[in-house]
Fold this protein.
Amino acid sequence: MQTIFVQLKCDLGKAYEVAAELVERDSVSEVYSISGQYDLLAKCYLDDAYDIGHYVEKQIHSIAGIRDTHTTIAFNAFT
């Protein structure tokens, strides 16, 4: 299983609509509103064989109201 974090910058007034769309995606585990350069942070789990670039392009960028994204690939979770 691959874990990625996607930071999203939304059009003004669209963060809640974008968040509502994101949580409907099967691979999205959690969505947070955040401070700073980006408005939202989405934690996503993908099958190992799934292409991350394709996922972000087709499943995230297709949501109306997103202006910019920054994707971080997680290598290891420490517990």
Observations:
- The radius of gyration is 12 Å.
- The CA atoms of residues 22 and 28 lie 7 Å apart.
